[in-house]
Amino acid sequence: MPSYTPPLRDMQFVLHEVFHVADEFKAMPTHADTDVDTINAVIEEAGKFASEITFPLNISGDEEGCVLDKSTHEVKAPKGFKEAYAQFIESGWPALSCSPEFGGQGLPYVLNQCLYEMLNAANQAWTMYPGLSHGAYEALQAHGTDAQKKTYLPKLTTGEWTGTMCLTEAHCGTDLGMLRTKAEPQADGTYKITGNKIFISAGEHDMVENIIHLVLARLPDAPKGSKGISLFAVPKFNVNADGSLGSRNPIYCGGLEHKMGIHGNATAQIVIDGAIGTMVGEPNKGLAAMFVMMNAARLGVGNQSLGLTEVAYQNALAYAKDRVQMRSLTGVKAKEKEADPIIVHPDVRKMLLTAKAYAEGGRALQVFCTLLLDKEHHHPDEKVRKDSGELVALLTPIVKAFITDNGYIATNACMQVFGGHGFIKEWGMEQFVRDNRINMIYEGTNTIQSLDLLGRKVLGNNGATLKKFGKLVGALVAEEGVNEKMSEFITPIAMLGDQLTKFTTEVGFKGFQNPDEVGAAAVDYLRVAGHFVFGYLFARMAQVALREIAAGNADPFYVGKLQTARFYFAKLFPETATLMRTARAGSKVLMDTDAALA
Fold first, then answer.
1. What's the mean pLDDT in 188-217?
2. Which of 90, 202, 283, 535 is 20 to 30 A from 227 in CA distance terms?
C-alpha cells in the first residue's frame, strides 16, 4: 500500500524563503493580515485533511469507480467519497480563497494552490469534484449577472453545490467553433437549451444537492464558428426566488465513460433536453467568459500532475531504500544484507532525482503563478496588476503542458523503480501513472497549449511578455553573475536566454512564410520555454540554499536542495539543445510524408 506525507518543509521553503509571500501580501490591503504563522497553520491542516481523509480513499475509489442508475440518471460516487466531501465542507476548505462577499474566507490564491496540490497527491479523482467548482465560481464572479451571483456563488463558495464546464461534444473537442448545442430565447429572459456533451468531469454525482453546469451553446441567429458561442448557467435543479431548490431541470447523465484512470470521478455524457438556463456574459461572447474557467482549470491540471509527481516520488524513494537487489558497482554498501538497497545504483538515483526535480520545480512555478494571480487581482498598483496578469497568461500553458509532461515522465520513472512490483496494482504506482495520463489530454491537449504559447502568447505580441519574464532572469543574472558559487546555475539560464531570443525570432520568421512551421516547432518550443522558467526558479532556490549554508545553517535540507538543483541543470536542462535542434528541422519532414502515411 502506498503512503503520502504532505511536503510541508518544501512548501514553506518556496513560500517564505524564495518568494517571501507574507511580505508580498503586506502590499495588498485585502491580504495584508495574512502572515507566516497563518500560512503555515493553513497548509499544515490542509495536509492533514489530504493525507488522513482523502488519501485512504484513493485505491478503493479507483477499484470501485462510479455507478450510474440508468433509470434515474443518478450517479453514485465510490464509497467514502460523499462522507469525505461533507467533512471538506464542514471544515470550510471550499471557501478558502473565495470572496467574503459570498461567504468565503478571502485568503490568497497561493494557499488554495497548496491545499489542492496536496489533495491531488492524495486523491486526484476525488479532488476534481470540488476543484472544478472553483473555476465555475471564478467565471460567474467575473461575468455573471447580479442575480446569478446571488443565486449561485454563496452555495459554490461553501461547497454545498458543485460546478462543471460543459464544452466538448462528440464531433468536436478543442474546435469549439463546431459545437451544435442550441439555446432558444424564452419570453421570461431565460433560454431553453438542447444538445449533448461528453467527457464532463464530475458531471453527475450524489455528493451535493445541486450541480451548476456552465454550458456552451449557440443562439438561433449566432454566426458560425467560435464567434457564435454563448455561455449559460444551467442548474441540475432550478432554483426558486427564495434560494430553495425547485423542479428538476432536464440536464442529466446519459452514460459514464469507461476510462484508463481517475475512475473515482464521474466523467459523464450529458444530455440536455430543453433545460432552462440563463446567459453568462454577452451573446456570442461565451468563450471570453468560459476562458476564465478554462484558464483556472489549466492551472489546476498542472497542479494535478504536480501532486501525482510528489506522491509517486515519495513512494519510489521509500521503496528504493528498502528493496535490496545486487551489489553496488563500487563495492558492498550493506554488509549485513545479502544485497544492497537499489538506491545505490546510479540509474535508480537518476529516476528518483528526475521525479524530485520535476516536483520541486513544479511547486515553485505553481506558487510563483498563484502569487502573480494574487497580485493581478489585489495589488493596488495598476502596473503591477497588468504585468502580473500578462505573466500569468504567458505561464499558464507552460504550467499545464510542461508540468503534466514532466508528471508523465516522473510517474513512469517512479513505477520503473519498483521493477515488476510497479506493474502490480497493490503498490499503487500504476494508478499514479494511469491517473496522470489524462492530464496531458484534457483542458486543451498539450499540443494546443504549445500552439497557444508560441502562436498567441509569444509571437502574438512579438515576444513582449516573454521579454518581461526575460527581465526577471536578467536581473538574477546581473545580481549573481560574479558569484562563482552560483555560476553553475546562472550560466546555463543566461545562455539559454540568448538562445531562446534567437530561436523565437527564427521560428517566427519561418512561421510568417509558412504557418505549418509554427505547428511543427510548438511542442519542442514549449519544453524549451518550460526549462527556461524552471532554470530561473531552480537558480533562485539554489541562491537561497547557498546563502543559508554560508550563514552557518546546518539544516541538511539546503544541501539537498543544492544537490537537486545541480542534478536538474546537469541531467534535465540540457534537453533544450536537442529540442531546439529538432524544432529547427522544420515542417517539411512532417508534412511532405503522404507516401509514408498512405
1. 97
2. 202
